[in-house]
């Protein structure tokens, strides 16, 4: 299941070079993941009811082109693969002209909130990743 959100770059997100500060891209990606989690039933509220949470354990990002104040960006999030206790998401940040601004691969672990350690993904996660694993 692919999801996309749209944002507009604000002046507070710009660095001294006049483009989006590199750390802000990580925040944009997080906003995209939170939306994806909520839409797939893996949101914080749904998981915490089962005493579970998600922990980002690895993020690889490529910065492809600059974004500037007022740019409208789409943050696209889609599943890539599912492991035993973790899953991988692919994320793209695309500008209003359809140009790739940044892309990332994010590894997330399912986490037991009481035991404070990773746990196997439940079977209900399977359908979310079926298309990605084909």
Question: Can you describe this structure?
Answer:
The protein is built from three helices and six strands, in the order βααβββββα. With 134 residues, it is of the alpha+beta class. It has one domain: Roll (Thiol Ester Dehydrase, Chain A). Strands 1, 2, 3, 4, 5 and 6 form a six-stranded antiparallel β-sheet that branches. A hairpin with a 3-residue loop joins β3 and β4. The longest helix has 19 residues. It starts with a strand and ends with a helix.
Shape assignment: elongated
Helix content: 10-25%
Which structural class do the helices and strands define? alpha+beta
Q: What's the CATH topology label?
A: Thiol Ester Dehydrase, Chain A
CATH architecture: Roll
Task: Write out the CATH superfamily name.
Answer: Hotdog Thioesterase
Give me the number of helical elements: 3
SS elements, strand count: 6
Q: Structurally, how many domains make up the residues?
A: 1
Q: Compute the CA-based radius of gyration.
A: 16 Å
Can you write the helix and strand succession as a string?
EHHEEEEEH
Ranges where pLDDT stays below 50 over 5 or more residues in a row are none
β content, as a range?
35-45%
- Measured distance between first and last alpha carbons: 13 Å
User: Under the CATH scheme, which class?
Assistant: Alpha Beta
GO molecular function: fatty acyl-CoA hydrolase activity
Family: Belongs to the 4-hydroxybenzoyl-CoA thioesterase family.
Keywords: Hydrolase
Protein name: Thioesterase
């Amino acid at each position: 299941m692919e999801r996309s959100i749209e944002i507009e770059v604000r002046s507070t997100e710009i660095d001294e070079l006049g483009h989006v500060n590199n750390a802000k891209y990580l925040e944009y990606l997080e906003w995209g993941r939170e939306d994806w989690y909520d839409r797939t039933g893996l949101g914080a509220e749904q998981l915490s009811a089962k005493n579970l949470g998600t922990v980002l354990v690895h993020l690889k990002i490529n910065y492809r082109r600059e974004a500037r104040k007022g740019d409208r960006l789409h943050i696209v999030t889609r599943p890539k693969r599912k492991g035993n206790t973790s899953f991988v998401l692919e994320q793209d940040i695309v500008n209003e002209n359809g140009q790739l601004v940044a892309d990332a691969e994010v590894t997330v672990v399912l986490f037991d909130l009481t035991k404070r350690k990773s746990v196997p993904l439940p079977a209900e996660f399977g359908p979310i990743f079926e298309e990605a694993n084909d």
